[in-house]
Amino acid sequence: MLILLVEDHRPLAESVAAYLEAAGMQVDFAANGLSALHFAVTQHYDAIILDIGLPGMDGLEVCRKLRQESRSATPIIMLTARDQLDDRLAGFDAGADDYLVKPFAMPELEARLNAIIRRSSGDAFKVRYEVGDLVLDSATFSVTRASRQIRLSRKQFEILRLLMRESPRIVSRETVERALWGDELPDSDALRSHVYNLRKLVDKGFATELIETLPGTGFRLRPPA
Questions:
Q1: Is 184 exposed, middle or buried (0-12, 13-18, 19+ CB in 10 A)?
Q2: Of 27, 79, 104, 173, which is the most exposed, with the fewest CB atoms less than 10 Å away?
């Protein structure tokens, strides 16, 4: 699981990251609201741990922007040093999924993370995706466009599933590479080759091209108008 940790108190952030990484998770770190927004909209995370008391843009505003402007459904756990009902209600109103008061026990944080990820998994890891006339079925490892069968390699299938799941949002190159190879990235430009061949298979012969490459940014699958 890939987690975004947003916490401006460095010692606490290092402790949380060390614990979660020891539990088998990967953790990205942001120390302020603007950095958190950048990470959250350019990467795919399984969950976000978001401190309310951030410098500049606070955690409540970050959460609102993710939910209302970016339409992000990534599960969010709010962290705060205050245990007041109004604070908890404000967090839930902003779109948080759970709330944890400092100081907290690391095993409780891990348990809450696992719980909110399980609750969201019905959408994040659903079996069937449809964008226009393109259909991907994870259960049968099949892809069709306009009822025409498309045969993909395993890597091509995983790229397409990620793009369809996030559509119409842009998926960064780094996110796709991490999904395919984890931290063991290939030396050659393998991703470009996979995407090039995927576009030929999915878009060739059709009036509308769905897969778009944005140089220096990433990729996206655009629904037809």
A1: exposed
A2: 104
Share of the chain above pLDDT 90, in %: 43
- Quote the tokens at residue 130: 């449809």
Q: What is the pLDDT of residue 184?
A: 66
State the burial class of residue 111 (Cβ atoms within 10 Å of its Cβ: 0-12, 13-18, 19+).
exposed
Neighbours of 69 (CB within 10 A): 10
Distance CA 168, CA 222 (A): 5
> What is residue 124's predicted lDDT score, i.e. its pLDDT?
45
Q: Which of 187, 184, 183, 134 is nearest to 161 (CA)?
A: 134
- DSSP E strand stretches across 106-181: 128-131, 134-137, 142-145, 148-150, 171-172
Closest CA to 119 of 179, 69, 74: 74
Q: Is the pLDDT of residue 42 over 80?
A: yes
What is the chain's alpha carbon radius of gyration, rounded to the nearest angstrom?
A: 19
Q: What angle (nearest 5°) sits at the alpha carbon of residue 219, between those of residues 147 and 168?
A: 65
* pLDDT of 70 higher than 90: no
**Per-residue pLDDT band at 182 (split at 50, 70, 90):** low
pTM: 0.57
| Cis check: omega of the bond before 103, within 30 degrees of 0 | yes
- What is residue 116's predicted lDDT score, i.e. its pLDDT? 85
Tell me the C-alpha to C-alpha distance, in Å, between residue 133 and each of 5, 102, 140, 148, 203: 37, 49, 18, 10, 11
- How many residues are present in the chain? 225
